[in-house]
Fold this sequence. Notes:
It is a single chain. The chain is of the alpha/beta class. The protein is built from twelve helices and eight strands. The chain has helices at residues 21-34, 53-67, 82-95, 112-125, 136-139, 145-151, 167-176, 191-197, 211-222, 226-242, 250-258, 278-287, and strands spanning 4-8, 38-41, 73-76, 99-103, 130-134, 157-162, 182-185, 201-204. Strands 1-2-3-4-5-6-7-8 form an eight-stranded parallel beta barrel, surrounded by seven helices. Helix 1 crosses helix 2 (53-67), helix 2 (53-67) packs parallel to helix 3 and helix 8 packs parallel to helix 9 (211-222). The two termini are 34 Å apart.
Amino acid sequence: MMQGSMVALVTPMTAAGELDWTSLHNLVEWHIEKGTHAIVAMGTTGESATLSVQEHMAVVKSVVDQVNGRIPVIAGTGANSTSEAVELTLEAKNAGVDACLSVTPYYNKPTQEGLFLHHQHIAQNVALPQLLYNVPGRTGVDMLPETVERLALVNNIIGIKEATGDIDRARRLIENTADDFLILSGDDETAVEMMLLGGKGEISVTANVAPAEVSQLCELAIAGKANEARALNDRLMPLHSAMFVESNPIPVKWCVAEMGLMQHGQRLPMTLLSEEQQPVVRKALKDAGIL
């Protein structure tokens, strides 16, 4: 079973916005060394929206080949076109990923029935374990618990990244789905509480800069060691918050670059972290013991 700290991996780029393959290689090795339990390539944090399909799949294939089975690799394959999502998911399967992460269709704002049929269609057409991804703050559509509960009965759909941060919703999903259906947090600030309720881990932005700490945090919370998990989370909380002072992945990419792990590089419409916010994020890094 996939569980624990699953890093929503940033995609390193040069100052000119070209893909930085050397830094990607180094980041993957660093995460494995630091105890990250799984890598999510080409999710929101990986800037999937600004890469071409060819680049998207090249990054996924590079990560899969380098990891070489040491930890699970999950590929972001969501799209607001159902047929495109099927194509991306099939490409990811052929690249050798362990699972895919399929975000709710953005911008279209489908009905709950449309969401059900979209994800059911992908699962029925690609024989690959699939994680749903609900992040209404980015997509403009919220997949409600009753829809998730229906989809949990579909073959190949093995869990959900629930990024609303709503603990009551997480509790309902944990109670109303099978024990082997993975409820994963997509919100670093509330992930510990979700895991203490029975969630199986988190797909984390903070893990990009504090992989060992987030890995330990997940292990403690999944084991039910509430006091230890909450104490560590309290130390990381300013860092969790700092990752979202501007749109993700602007702050986290700035952090990873400041740590010397890659260059400052992104593509429009993403920009470099503003000078106003840089001292705020730097202080959070220092307070967490990262810098």
